[in-house]
Amino acid sequence: MAQGLIEVERKFIPGPGTEERLQELGAVLEHRVTFRDSYYDTPELSLMRADHWLRQREGSGWEFKCPGATSVSGPHTEYMELTAEPAIVAQLCEVLGGVPAQETAPAKLIVYLQRFRPQDYQRLLEVYGSREKPQGTKDPDMRLG
């Protein structure tokens, strides 16, 4: 399994008057951070049922959280956090069982030509057909729907 960070969170619910008491002790709000997470799963909630969490954090990219201690059963409190996309894809394939991973995404220009200028794409294939495939695609005949 790929190396990742281990995140340990302790959550608590402050009692009434906690903020006021902190201010009495001299505490001040240094700064506030707001972010938005989008979580992804299968329609069957396969990731959640396996205690795995795939999210895209606004401005930070993809994160995949999986249980950190394998000997513990039930809900976990320690999670390993993967942030490198190849490691995330590999772990997703392992958890979801046989989800094919695309080696490299096709270049934006290739996709544009395929979708909106198929004649130009065909010319490109003709030019490169006898030598090599156009850069950015591993299968020159690949069509996106």
UniProtKB/TrEMBL annotation:
It comes from the Eukaryota. The gene is THTPA. Pfam families: CYTH. PANTHER family: THIAMINE-TRIPHOSPHATASE. InterPro entries: CYTH-like_dom_sf, CYTH_domain, THTPA. This is Thiamine-triphosphatase isoform X2. It comes from Vicugna pacos. Residues 6-102 form the CYTH domain.
